[in-house]
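ESCALATION

Customer reports they have been waiting on this structure for their group meeting. Please prioritize. Original submission:
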Amino acid sequence: MNLLKQLEAEQMSALRGKKPLPSFRPGDTLKVNVKVVDATYDEKTKQTKTRERLQAFEGVCISRAGEGLNESFTVRKLSYGEGVERVFPIYSPVVDSVQVVRKGKVRRAKLYYLRGRRGKSARISERVERGASEPAESASS
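Update from on-call: job pushed to the front of the queue and completed.
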């Protein structure tokens, strides 16, 4: 492993060490908790007050890009009939947590075609994971 990859791996473990990232891919519906800083100015005390809160951004992951420290993912949702997309760096202090709400079954890595779709044509069917815990249909007979 060369020196740059080693330094990058150390930075990634330092940034995300306590908060594990779930495995997700394009097509999955995600709930991303984002840290939002509210700054207000108090006229009485002549001070600026800052307050941090978490805001959930729930939508479909339409792409993942980059690798290492520069990896990011794009989430798209409909808000009041208008499509909203946000790009989140994975190793960012702004992203508090990522939760997979449901897994989607898609056949491509970039779902940019969803931008032009509305309603039923924009739906993504759910992916069913078959693991060792579930018995196969033919094994029971």
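Sent to customer with the following note: Helices lie at 3-16.
Escalation resolved.
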